[in-house]
Please model this.
Amino acid sequence: MQTASDRHEYPAHWEADVVLRDGGTARIRPITVDDAERLVSFYEQVSDESKYYRFFAPYPRLSARDVHRFTHHDFVDRVGLAATVGGEFIATVRYDRIGAGGMPASAPADEAEVAFLVQDAHQGRGVASALLEHIAAVARERGIRRFAAEVLPANSRMIKVFTDAGYQQKRSFEDGVVRLEFDLEPTDRSLAVQRAREQRAEARSVQRLLAPGSVAVIGVGRRPGGVGRSILGNLRDGGFTGRLYAVNKAFDELRELDGVPAHRSVREIPEPVDLAVVAVPAEHVPEVVAECGEHGVQGLVVISAGYAESGPEGRERQRALVRQARSYGMRIIGPNAFGIINTSPDVRLNASLAPEMPRTGRIGLFAQSGAIGIALLSRLHRRGGGVTGVTGVSTFVSSGNRSDVSGNDVLQYWYEDSDTDVALMYLETIGSPRKFNRLARRTAAAKPLVVVQGARHGSAPQGHAVRATRLPHATVSALLRQAGVIRVDTITELVDAGLLLARQPLPAGPRVAILGNSESLGLLTYDACLTQGLRPLPPLDLTTAASAEDFHRALTAALADDACDAVVVTAIPTVAETSAQDAALAEALRSAAAAAPAKPVLVVHVELGGLAQALSAAASTSPQAQRTDPPPPAEPPLTPVQAPANARLIPAYPAAERAVRALAEAVGYAQWRRDTAEPGKVPEYDDIDEKGAAALIGRLLARGQGLTLGSDETCDLLARYGIHVRRALPAPTPDAAAQAARAIGYPVALKATAPHLRHRADLGGVRLDLADEEQLRRAYAELTELFGKPEELRPVVQGMAPRGVDTLVRAVIDPAAGAVLSFGLAGAASQLLDDMAHRLIPVTDRDATFLVRSIRTAPLLFGWRGSAPVDTPALEELMLRVSRLVDDHPEVVAVTLEPVVVAPRGLSVLGATVRLAPPPARGDLGPRTLPPY
Model:
């Protein structure tokens, strides 16, 4: 590497893996003196036209001087980056810092010339766009604020790279050359462009894995059994529509296995291979990956175990696996994966250990655990195929150790997948919470996203290397809900919600009609609705003698009622119930529901397998959905009732609580959709002194890397954002307390601020409404007698605030999730009951309103039991100002205002702490990169 004294140390942090437009990957890294041969080889593969566009003249080969210039960089004023695949260059970019006259310069000059060269075979893959993002980030790091580029008018592709990037730019034409100048400061448009490109690239990378034209299973045994042989059989039996190959280096003369072409190596396969399923021992995987990379395989599903889940040695093996695969431009699902499934009739891919292909449907499944993946597939198969009558699976991904492809990538794919209407995810870790939150919000705006989190109260699985969050699980859940995620606690609830959302409309509100042939079951459903915060109408009891026609009439009337947003039908079997009666009731419910397509209908049944199967048959159109398991011999066969192709499938639940819980989640999600259609605003305040606050923060941070501000400094900083803290003066002696009280004015409060007594009025460390010096001195004596010497108590004197409700406002920056604003009532409500509401910063006016109203103890703010309502608008404004402070100045890593006494008119901030530190890195604002390994 570069060692000359005038060069900076090699910037390893500039190295990154990126996903390109076609879904392949490339490695971006700085160019060094060791790259001379690679550069020459790369240049020889570039067409004469591309060379002409780069140098504005015929330039058949690089001279020794050129090679020296393009490989020797100081990583400050002269920087070159290369995109590599398989260790070889496919594109380069460089900048040279220039002064006002366009001549080479050093800092403080803040402009640089930039130029690209992309190998012709890789043009159109988005390589130049990715390189521009990275070279711009490097330039900003080195103090460069503006790029200039000169391009021939005929080089339309390169002009488009610059103009489409979203930066503010100027364009001129002189001497036959187009000159582009653009600022490198990210803009809303440049970030939007970057994220749109990220979405397309990552979605395409997953699509290449889920819809391959050919699959090779590597590690297929000669004898039946074994992982590789099982997966090969599952692919074949599932009806995979592409080419299929069996690979094992132990195959000698064998040319076919179970009707599938057999080869000793991927290299021997004469056609291209899109996907390789790897089921060999971990020690043989590197050899397999190399063969796949050299053959041009696009992606890997690694079933093999023995990686990070097995300990430190396995973790290093996993890192090497990812490094090797990405060097060839391949993405990985796994290792230690269960596999992937795509039920599309055009693909029919079952590259998994699931012995049967799930029914085709509209639900996408993602599971980080193979065991949970099996459970999900099993439950959907059991309930979706003959019990609930609800749709099946579109795609399934079990990521195993999640070393490369993650839930974020699959969300990118599902967002634009027309075959997926609902996304269900089982997550044990979230590798990039900021990004997941962003993707989840965008996905949830288009289709429901239901998530259950495992490992909520313990450490992450060994196989998952993720950045830890300091936020408690309740906070993470609240932030997911803010993004529109339907958060549930169990796999059962995950499936219940998914089945409802897959083919029923979203409810317009919380009003629920209940009807059925059991008064008791109706009352249970009514109680469950109240528990879930819904507004049930009185249950309609049709009596046990109700016929299918009675159900049809009642359901039709309920759906026509403007006071109803959803209907729950409860049904119990009669003693002589027959399959024909089941089918008649199912058809009655289906036809009534079809006449009112805007309202959801759910069925609660008790041991009513016949009705559940009939509901399935009554609205099934696909051959798989119409098939049912053979009934027991004593039962007559079920007669399916055919329905139109667009028929609504009615979900059925074995318990009222489960049906109502799923409905409540749908109601909440529908309300979120309506709320986000009119997003709130981050208000502007004329009295905020942003520049003054920045200058103060800069002076304070000059003292050290991280510090908790003193009282005066805290008050000064907060005041610049219109947050005024009621003054508290130290009282180390009774005389000092009396002097402080005279300065403030009676009545006053005397408080102990020692850590064990702070904000603990219940311990007696606070004396309020002290009207004169005599009362003050008596209170001072009582405190010191009860709790110890003044130096232990740290007493202060503070002016009395108007009576009100004590609240807490807190903002913290989590390294993984970002800045979070929290609100609750001070004291036991927040500390003991964890009754807190949370929102990501920046907070909008709608968010602030939500924070105040979403805690369980919110009634205390709105006149509970005859008390006076407090000034919640003032409270909301305070939270918005705190949000602005933290958002404007990421160096403010923690703010706590406690207590904030909210009175009927106005509020008083009685205590405040602020912590400053250098801001944590914001990877979500930088160039596109894959997570490091």
Remarks:
- The CA atoms of residues 429 and 460 lie 6 Å apart.
